[in-house]
Amino acid sequence: MSVIQTIRDRGTWIIFVIIAVALIAFILQDGAGRGGSAFSNSSVIAKVNGTTIDRGTFEERLKNQEAMYAGQGATREQLIGNVFNMEVDNIVLNQEFEKLGLSVSAKELNDILFGENSPLRQEFTDPATGVFKVDDAKKAFAQIKKSKNAEQVRMITAGYIEPTIQNSLRNKYQNLLLQSVYVPKWLVEKQQADNNAVANASYVLYPYVAIADSTVKVSDADINNYVKKHSSEFKKEEETRSIVYVNFSAAPTSADSAATLSQITALKNEFASTTDAAAFLGKVGTELPYYNSYFGGSRIMVANKDSITRLPVGGVFGPYIDGNNFVIAKMVGIKQWPDSVSVRHILIGTNDPQSGQMVRDDSTAKKLVDSIQTAIKGGADFNGLVAKYSDDGGSKDKGGVYDYFPQGQMVIPFNDFAFDNPVGSKGVVKTDYGYHYIEVLGQKNRAAAYKIAYLAKPIISSNETVNEANTAAATFAASAKSAKAFNENAAKLAKPILPASDIKKNDFTVGTMSNTRSLVRWIYENKEGAVSDPTEVGDQIIVAMISGINKAGLMSATEARPLVEGIIRNEKKAKIIIDTKLKGSTLEELAKSSGASILRADSIAFNAGFVNGVGNEPKMVGAAFNKANVGKASSLIAGNSGVYAVKVENIGAKAADALPESVKQTLIQNRKMAAYRSVEALRKAATVKDNRFDFY
């Protein structure tokens, strides 16, 4: 439910008087609209270039995100990260806006709120005509003088005013950047020439793979020297930590599975004989909720579907395994139903579907829907009644029509009326949302539909299984208080030691293990070499040891080795090849000395960096377009795949595949994309003191 609709239903019109827009803008700029909040507390989540993100504001934003993404699978941990990033972005942008003197005037805010692209358009649009009712919006805003409800003001401020100001400032900022894009004529000409340039060349290549890796050692000193020379590539903005761990399985055993099978088998006869499947399942419990209606065969997606749908009414099938459950299926009923229907309806709401708040009392709603039914029987216009009375925003602007929806999409009473009654049927149905006047408009593809009840019992670990894993993990942890003891005890138990690296302070996962925030906190509350108590992770019990603390700054040799060891090894191989393998000043002499062949590469594209038969070799491409190498061998070049020498046969140009204007537009678009990444650059340049660890 929208903010404004919520406020309407609470019985109070609030928002802002037009002549007070300047005051609102002032308040916002002094508060939440500039990185702070009028509703803050003293707890500081973070500081960004000296500007604080207080916990009150942060929790408010987080609450809004949780409401927005409810039911979409987003975890609280993910949303914490999203909100933090958004708050940091807003602060660095607002600071940039201040430097540039960007602002939103009272008139601009007024024009946006009541203009063509108003954020209020959805709330104040006539569903019958699609016209934005500006006067109604202004009247609603004028009631701010009469409202002293801080919560309502907060809702409107956060829901409409703040986003409007922020979006307007962002648009101004982006427009400034985009208007600064300039592409001179000479650059277009150069780019077009580069795009069309081609070369043909001969070359000799001695590959790195011809020298065994075992013959070339890469020391920590080699790695540290490389990291220092390329410091910008290996600088870490924050500390990371590493662990090693062993795990002890607490997953269900075969005995646990047999126990679950015995439990569900003991219920089979009673399940088969019951005449009230819903009551029985409610009494004994089931992992698969009972859907007390019908589904067509194409909509049923369960294990053993064919066997289940062949059951007679009252028949049972199973037990069988479906996922982590033992299941018995019972056929409760079979009907001939369409696979989709079209209806139109009018909802007289009693409860809002999103907030759960009461819209009107039941008796009032029932009287109103009965009056509507009587009016329709008397010939009243259905569309007019929908527009005037219906509380269903999803169909109101379409004359109340839901056009051919499948089985199970609507709540059961609504669904069953639509599918169980013939075309032309009309009637009133009560659901959790209120009273619906429904007319069935059409039905398609009648076939068998099934009502099936599933008795499902999860295969879970017994107390004995869990206790055994905990005991083994506790015994290991007690005797593994040093790195040496940790490794020795793991070896005795034949337990593999598993690594997890690059763990950050605010992470909620460790390696492939989810929901491990408590483990992350332990990692950052202890010293290198510390061994954890047994920690439950899913159906595993793990014991971890902190194996490394990697401070912010340049990567250590251990951290950088996986990234640079291969590069350094190839550099050393290149020196060996140049010193001992390739001798001579011509391609023929170089080939003879090394046992290599003289190869040819035709149509090398200047702007590709790729050579057919070789791969990604930008240095080779560069040599192929060096006029100094025309007709003679180049100096030896250490590339990505080996050491080579190039002799240029000729340098030319292919027919232009794009007009100058097209090339110019491509260059402009590339530079515009860089402008859109400006927030990333601002964030990277910011000084951020992140205190989330203290709160989450």
How does this model look, in words?
This protein has 696 residues and is α+β, with helices and mostly antiparallel strands. It has 4 domains: 177 residues, no CATH class; 136 residues, no CATH class; 209 residues, Chitinase A, domain 3; 89 residues, no CATH class. It contains 24 helices and 21 strands. Strands 6, 7, 8, 9, 10 and 11 form a 6-stranded antiparallel beta sheet that branches. It has a 4-stranded antiparallel beta sheet with strand order 16-3-20-19. Helix 3 crosses helix 4 and helix 8 packs across helix 23. The N terminus is likely disordered.
Instruction: Give the strand content.
Output: 15-25%
- The CATH architecture classification of the largest domain is Roll
* Beta strand count: 21
- Rounded to the nearest angstrom, the radius of gyration is 35 Å
Summarize the structure.
It contains 24 helices and 21 strands. With about 700 residues, the chain is an alpha+beta fold. It folds into four domains: about 5-180, no CATH class; about 195-235 and about 560-655, no CATH class; about 250-460, Roll (Chitinase A, domain 3), CATH 3.10.50.40; about 465-550, no CATH class.
Present the secondary structure layout.
Layout: H1 3-9, H2 21-30, E1 44-48, E2 51-54, H3 55-68, H4 76-100, H5 106-113, H6 134-142, H7 150-179, H8 185-196, E3 197-207, H9 220-229, E4 235-236, E5 240-249, H10 254-265, H11 268-273, H12 277-284, E6 295-296, H13 305-309, E7 316-322, E8 325-349, H14 362-377, H15 382-389, E9 401-406, H16 412-420, E10 426-431, E11 434-458, H17 463-479, H18 483-492, E12 498-504, H19 517-525, E13 535-537, E14 540-550, E15 553-554, H20 557-581, H21 587-594, E16 598-605, E17 610-611, E18 615-616, H22 618-624, E19 637-638, E20 642-653, H23 660-676, H24 678-685, E21 688-690
Antiparallel strand pairs: 1-2, 1-21, 3-16, 3-20, 4-15, 5-12, 5-14, 6-11, 7-8, 8-9, 8-11, 10-11, 13-14, 17-18, 19-20
